[in-house]
Every structure is written in C-alpha cells, then in structure tokens.
Design brief:
With 95 residues, the protein is α+β, with helices and mostly antiparallel strands. It has one domain. The chain is 25% helix and 26% strand. It contains three helices and five strands, in the order E-E-H-E-H-H-E-E. It has a five-stranded antiparallel β-sheet with strand order 2-1-3-4-5, covered by helices on one side. A hairpin with a 2-residue loop joins strand 4 and strand 5. The longest helix is centred in the middle third of the chain and has 11 residues. The termini are far apart.
C-alpha cells in the first residue's frame, strides 16, 4: 500500500510559546532544509493522511491499549504516534 504522508515540525516548548506545529511539509528533505535554514529546535514527525495516529498504530500493531484510560477521548486526542520522528537542536538532527 502506498500511504500518503506529511512531515510536521513542532518546536520545543522552550523555544516556542505554542504547542501547535509551525510547519507541514510533503517531504522530510524539504522540512529538514527549513529547520536548518532557521536553526530550529524541536521534533519532526511523519503522519499518515486520512487516518488518526492512534488508529494507524493499533491497525499496524505498533500500539495496543492495555489500560482502560488508553481508549478514552483524552488519550486518543493526545496520541501522536511518532513511529517515525526525529529531534533537532539549533537546526541539526540529534540522536
């Protein structure tokens, strides 16, 4: 299956007053160029289009709810997936 994806950059809470993403990109390379250009610190995460991260993770055996709270609206709304994400400091990817 050829999944459509986007790459979402969210700045770290120290460098950004908002928890909202500051950029959405069609490729990882484009996102990394932008992150480097501005010397940003934060996380770049790949998300699949037209499916929630929680549902995708369950469907693909990356996550299985084992506690009652893990099926609540609050938990699902905060679930970011993140099976593919990278961290950056001052525009450079870190391990």
């Amino acid at each position: 299956m050829n999944e459509r994806t986007v790459w979402v950059f969210t700045g770290s809470h120290e460098s950004q007053r908002s928890a909202f993403p500051s950029g959405v990109f069609s490729t990882q390379a484009t996102a990394e160029d932008w992150i480097a250009l501005h010397g940003l610190t934060g996380t770049l995460t790949m998300y699949r289009i037209d499916v929630g991260a929680y549902d995708w993770a369950i469907q693909n055996a990356y996550f299985r709810p084992t506690k009652p709270h893990q099926s609540t609206p609050d938990f699902i709304a905060a679930f970011s997936g993140g099976d593919t994400h990278f961290h950056y400091e001052s525009g450079r990817r870190v391990a």
